[in-house]
Amino acid sequence: MKTFLFLFAFILLTSCATQTSFNDFYQTNQKEADFSLGLNSSLISSFLSDEEYEEIKPLLKKAKHVRILVFSENSDNMSKKFDKFISKSTFDEMVKIKDDNDKVNVFTLEEKNKIKEVVVEVRSDDDFVLLGLKTNLSEDDIAKLIKD
């Protein structure tokens, strides 16, 4: 019985360790940020114009909350910390865009054919910005977003 409990605990801890949430990174590094913001997705519409809101409305319907971190003074150090976080997590890189010295990466965390988290990383010469979005998107939702 002890062997069974040990094996069960090991499997449980291992599976939890691989599903690292962006929220963990956010909580750990929020004090280092020059600006940080955590919002319920229903509040995002108050920061957008009607036109902008209509464009992302389908995404926000499937979102739970948004976390934003902006680093300026220690952007290189935080960029390295984030790279380490991503490499140890189960996030997949979905999109990579580079324009001169600006870079944008989009990472997703999937579970049971649903995208549970989306993290957007933006690097420029002076700034490092992270946006994390907790979602429940299916492949059909993604196809609709891309189509529109």
From TrEMBL:
The keyword Signal applies. Keywords: Signal. Residues 1-20 form the signal peptide. This is DUF4252 domain-containing protein. It comes from Namhaeicola litoreus. The lineage of its organism: Bacteria, Pseudomonadati, Bacteroidota, Flavobacteriia, Flavobacteriales.
